[in-house]
Description:
The complex is a heterodimer. Helix content of chain A is 73%, strand content 0%. By secondary structure, chain A is mainly α. Chain B has 13 helices and two strands, in the order αββαααααααααααα. A two-stranded antiparallel ribbon of chain B has the order 1-2. In chain B, helix 2 packs across helix 3 (58-92), helix 2 crosses helix 12 and helix 3 (58-92) packs across helix 9 (191-219). The longest helix of chain B is centred in the N-terminal third of the chain and has 35 residues, at 58-92. Chain B is globular and about 80 Å long. Chains A and B meet through helix 1, helix 3, helix 4, helix 5 and helix 6 of A and helix 1, helix 3, helix 4, helix 5 and helix 6 of B.
Amino acid sequence: MIRSLPRSKGYDWAFNGFIVLYFVFLFAPLVVTCVLAFNNSDFPSLPWQGFSLDWFLADGPDRVGLFHDEQNLRAILTSFETAFFVSILSVVVGTCASFLFEKEHFRFKGLLYLLMLAPLVVPGVILGISQLLAANTAGIFFDETFGLDFDIFRPSFWLVVLGQFSFISTFVTLVVSARLRKFDTSLEEAALNLGATQFGVIWHITLKYLRPAIVGAGAVAFLMSFENFNTTLFLVGSEPTLPINLYLQVRDGSTPVINAVSLMLIMGTSLLALVNFYFNRKTD
Amino acid sequence: MPRSRLAFWIFLAPVLMWLLLLIVLPHIDLLLMSFRGENDYGDIVWTAQNYLNFFTEPIYWLTFVRTALYAIVTTGITLILAMPVAFYISKLARVRIQGALMILILLPFWVSELVRIYGWMILLRESGVLNFFLVKLGILHRPVELLYNDATMIMGLVYTSMLFMVVPLVSVMDSLDDSLIEAAHDLGARKTAIWRTIIIPHCKPGITSGAIVVFMLTLGNYLTPNLMGGKNSLWFTEQIYNQFIASFNWNQGSAFGFLLLVLSSLIIWAGLKLSGQKLGEVAS
């Protein structure tokens, strides 16, 4: 049965075989995508026509590699900008929220806490459409009452940032709260007794203690924003993020450039994820 | 410890802004929009017509029921696959490689869902990698289209949500004391009895939280059914998207969105009630 009990050979073989198959299932699509990015063929499929870096480096006219593909490059840049603002915003607000829920006592705290958890159970598509509607309503309101026209209320870069921020903050709050709960408050009391100000204590002691959790949550927020599709789909304007841009390309027929983009994405996210693991392990 | 009101308000203000402007108001707007529509003269009036359309048009509610059923099937398959994997990692694998296995399990899920689905598409389609090998090996005479059917779509949904089942299961199995299984074994219990009376009851909290998350993610998924399912495999989120983006009938789309929200909340609530858990415990 388990490590410490005697097991039959057959049982061990069957179980190991199952696990090997599971990992093949897990990695097959990623491996195939990466390998075909180097195939010297105009379609992302076999047979293997030889090794080629065309899908990264080619500069037209027959083939346009990723590094010369303006549309994809712009989408990557947009995704970076979006993820940057989303992680800054959600880390700031998420940290405020965890201070609020862990350290303060006030009326309706339970209700507010439930509201904070709500994005976990609201499907991403619904978050997207409800924010599209609200932005539209707000736009009409400002237009009719003040005659003002704001671009932010139309599907646009900032609407995407707000839409992603609305649920990623919840994850940041949960991660930071988990660490704040383990904090020894006598450290704060000691600092206050020695004459530190309230904000001095938060800045020099509590936030310093929370730093690993905040950095980790920021990295997670960045990745979540970078790969978000469902919410973004409804809020995106004329500047598509990378997942939206890739989706349009995949739907309308694919070229190996998509494999090249995917390969970069796989390498980038794995690297960030591994760095995150490494730091988490060091602090535990 | 005495705290200033100022600190409290500094924490509260951004959190309130976030929850009111981006969570509460948009969902109220969604509800209001769903009850609005045009009358015969083209004026906007309050009406339940959008909901009546849903019940009188079989294609709408059939898609709704289908989506719910398939999400349940997906959750079941994910659970059946994830149980042995989690068991292997926490109870069978050598202690030294446990951490490495966990990282391997997590890595694919950091990569954008779109890239993973794209990988499956180039594996499975008619000119895909799998067909290439099947024909080469003489198993098939002619390539077969493996994409665009319900079975493949469910496999894709299982693949995309696997992680959210494995991780909670590994953490509950880690907390199961090995000596309980050893004792049962020494007293002559069979494997099935051990699973039925020890392992599964102990894992119940993990099973519920995994099932809730997987179910919700599947129900709200747009990419996988859209890219892997065929023309006939409609998914309810696609209906919402079509109403919003293709038909520009936002009122109808809001009604659909609200129905989906009610369905997912109801099932999550029922799941929590049945297992006696709280949302906060499941989430963290």
